[in-house]
Amino acid sequence: MSWDVVIGIETHVQLQTKTKIFSGASTAFGAEPNTQACVLSIALPGTLPVLNYEAVQCAIKFGLATNAEIAPRSIFARKNYFYPDLPKGYQISQYELPVVGKGSLEIEIGDIKKTVRITRAHLEEDAGKSSHGAVENGTGIDLNRAGTPLLEIVSEPDMTSASEAVAYAKKLHELVQWIGICDGNMQEGSFRCDINVSVKRKGESKLGTRREIKNLNSFKFIEQAIYYETQWQIEMLEEGKAIQQATVLFNPETGETKAMRSKEEANDYRYFPDPDLLPLEITDEKIREIKESMTELPHLMKARLEHDYQLSSYDAAGITSDKHVADYFFATLKEGAEPKQIANWILGQLFSKLNEHNLSIENSSIKPAVLSLLLKRIQDGTISNNGAKQLFEKLWVNPELEIDTLIESEGLKQVSDSGLIETMIDEVLKNNQAMVDEYRSGKEKAFNALVGQIMKASKGKANPGQVNELLRQKLVKF
Amino acid sequence: MSITHDEIKKIAHLARIKITEEEADATLKKLSGILNLIEDMKKVDTTNISPMSHAQSVTQRLRDDVVTETNQREKLQKIAPEVSDGLYIVPQVIE
Questions:
Q1: A to B CB pairs, distance under 8 Å
Q2: Which of residues 276-305 of A touch B (CB under 8 A)?
Q3: Distance between CA A351 and CA A321 in Å, rounded?
Q4: For A55, which residue in chain B has the nearest alpha carbon?
Q5: Cβ proximity of A114 and B67 under 8 Å
Q6: What is the pLDDT of residue A264?
Q7: What is the ipTM for the molecules in this complex?
Q8: Closest Cα to residue A11, out of A155, A116, A127?
Q9: Rounded CA gap, A284 and A288, in Å?
Q10: Model pLDDT, residue A261
Q11: What are the structural domain ranges in chain A?
Q12: Are A46 and A276 a contacting pair, CB within 8 Å?
């Protein structure tokens, strides 16, 4: 029996504002419990919410980045439920009229491109945090997080595998950081996904019953959880059992998903418009103003890198995966190095060093100007690629070193004197008649072996490009 | 519009309000009255009239993203029934 998997994702993105969505309390992470819980956060009677304009702008930026409709008028609603970390007894969210309407996001799975439709994105407030077992027979409540602005982004059930779901989550994660609305810190919960999974018989048009995997905060967990959940549902159906709609939790220890105890009427939230908040109106002029303030979107920049600088799709994707990487690329380019080479070195040498030291590119010890000069020295033939790699290591430890002085002191200057190289070639040809004969009989490998000998004779300092060219000429005449 | 005794009990449960059977009956009468009124109002033709979400036709005022609240934990926790290490303590929540 063959099955189709259907996946939709709801993502909670914590917006990068200084203050909460409805009050002037700080949202800084890691403060002592309840030191950022003001009268509104703890829901004292008589307090009233006042909407944070920055949170609204973040939502508009997201809408613009996903080609979505921005609602000229949207409404805040109360979602009613009881839980101690929600002291008001309701969460302020948006229901019927969200700020961001239908949009889309293009994802790539290998070489295949796919468009995932976005149903909506709405503003809402986060709840506080409960710590069970804080005291004996009691639960401790920290309301610092209560009221932190969130953008909940809801996708259509357009994904059909764990890898597509991960590609979507990663793309969204890159995008929200790129447009500067979220710090993307998944450990701190700034970006968390609820994944709706269902399966149906291949070709069947009617969707199966879905189960929702709650609160995944790593791409690895998303992949593992979907894989396990899908297998479980298929096994159930193949045994002739029915799937019950449920909310499930993923256990990273066991790699399994398990249904939470389903509370009766748990989903009866009795939404209604919040009378404490007036309709939010957004003018076309405001939208235009924000659009003009936004940086080039990653997919447009990627296309530009491929078109204007002939970068491969892979390299262009690497450079545009993160705004800071793109900034580094353009800063290096401005210093005069060659674009393809810059991309190679950023994605190769630099990335492996950054990973090794667990650094982000903004904190790279080698700055764009230094990298650019290094690459220019390869370009003008002063040093070889290998020589540059050695210098890169030295510069990483001590970026203050002067490159040209270093080239001299390390003896990495290439021999580009054609007379000198020719002398070396003659010497090698004389001593390696067997290889020359092999080359003559059509073995191209022998040519590379001869180049190797010449490079060895020059102690690695001969300019390889020149060696190749001169050797070809010699062999014709020899 | 009809509402049942059981629905009244359900709504009360969702709102965590304990009501007796007699109270449920009395509430049933009152709520039915309101719902009937709404049914009457629904008969009015509202084509081309956009729904209202607020009684006043004004729009939301927006606040600049500037921290204006200071740490008032000590003062606020004085009125809490129980606190420990800066946390508000509530009866154990069983997951």
A1: 129
A2: 277-281
A3: 13
A4: B65
A5: no
A6: 47
A7: 0.86
A8: A155
A9: 6
A10: 64
A11: 3-286, 295-409, 418-477
A12: no
pLDDT at A159: 97
- Answer yes or no: do B61 and A50 touch at CB < 8 A: yes
Q: CA-CA distance, A395 to A215, in Å (whole number)? A: 43
* Top-confidence residue, B53 or A91: A91
A207 close to A200: Cβ distance less than 8 angstroms? yes
Strands in B83-84's sheet, in edge-to-edge order, are A129-135, A138-142, B87-91, B83-84
What pLDDT is stored for residue A234 in this prediction?
A: 95
Residue with tokens 């509530």: B90
Contact B64 A132 (CB under 8 A): no
CA distances from A76 to A73, A94, A446 (A): 10, 5, 75
Low-confidence ranges of chain A (pLDDT < 70): 261-267, 477-478
| C-beta separation of B60 from A49 below 8 A | no
Q: A356 or B95: which carries more pLDDT confidence?
A: A356
Q: Which of B11, B82, B88, B92 is most worth mutating to test chain A (most A CB atoms within 10 A of its CB)?
A: B88
Instruction: Give Cα separations from A141 to B18, B71, B76 (angstroms).
Output: 25, 16, 14
Return d(Cα A189, Cα A172) in angstroms, integer.
15
Residue A405: other Cβ atoms inside 10 A: 9
Fold of B5-42: Histone, subunit A (1.10.20)
| Amino acid of residue A134 | A
Q: Which residue has the higher pLDDT, B14 or A54?
A: A54
pLDDT at A371: 95
The fraction of chain A above a pLDDT of 70, given in percent, is: 98
Contacts of A228 (CB under 8 A, 6+ apart): A250, A255, A256, A257
Sort A302 into a burial class: Cβ within 10 Å, 0-12 / 13-18 / 19+.
buried
To which residue do tokens 């580009």 refer? A416
CATH class, A418-477 region: mainly alpha
